[in-house]
Amino acid sequence: MTNAPADPGASGLRRTLGTGDAVVVGLGAMLGAGIFAALAPAARAAGPGLLVGLAVAAVVAYCNAGSSARLAALYPASGGTYVYGRERLGEFWGYLAGWAFVVGKTASCAAMALTVGAYAWPGQAHAVAVAAVVLVTAVDYGGMQRSASVTRVIVGVVLAVLASVVVVCLTSGDAAPGRLDDGVSGGTGGVLQAAGLLFFAFAGYARIATLGEEVRDPARTIPRAVRAALGIALVAYAAVAVAVLAVLGAESLGASVAPLADAVRAAGVPGL
């Protein structure tokens, strides 16, 4: 095991990103399709315990993010989990952690792309998903600075959409606080299952840790960006979950294929 920090300049990458850019990259990874896709299965599992499941997922994500932030500060190099595993446990464990990260992110990207297809064009969801992957790959190929700029626009649009959903749902006559705890509870097991599903919506903070050689002053920037991105995501998710539950209730939410779209439709604004 080696304890010396990895060489931050070995790859020749340029440190062009600040804290705001890193936060945007993290939010871009978190505020994608996670909240759009995870709410329904989480509601099926936990029922009215959905909000408790969200709180559990947030606590676990905070603990995990804190560990990632400290490791990123200690080893400010690109590679994320690969670098941490290699430096702390050895080369084999670094490769194992790195490939596990790649496989996990590949699966999450597929899920996000399919969610985009399900919302944008349900009849051609797979074709839209493929197009989305190709488009994002093309943007990333243009470099980190361009990718961060495009991500900033996407994050702004997604936050605007989520805010619109919250406002429409909570100001509609169909919103009822009693629906927040209405329905059959999934018990402790259901809440934990919901927490596992909702954790998927927080997992993008790990993307920030891979920017070790692309942010300025990574030992300070990465921990700050991880905490900020996680906090913003939690506020957004909690607001959306409360708003959608208040309109649909846990049972209808759990049965929905596109819960946010169904919520605004039930609130009387189907065009949103």
TrEMBL record:
Glycoprotein is among the record's keywords: no
InterPro entries membership: AA-permease/SLC12A_dom, APC_superfamily
A Pfam match: AA_permease
Membrane topology per record: Multi-pass membrane protein
Keywords carried by this UniProt record: Membrane, Transmembrane, Transmembrane helix
Major place of residence: membrane
Keyword Membrane attributed: yes
Gene Ontology BP, a term: transmembrane transport
Gene Ontology CC terms, in alphabetical order: membrane
Location(s) in or outside the cell: Membrane
Regions that span the bilayer: 22-43, 49-71, 92-119, 125-143, 150-170, 190-208, 228-250
All copies of domain Amino acid permease/ SLC12A, residue ranges: 22-271
Name this polypeptide is given: Amino acid permease
Upper taxonomic lineage: Bacteria, Bacillati, Actinomycetota, Actinomycetes, Catenulisporales
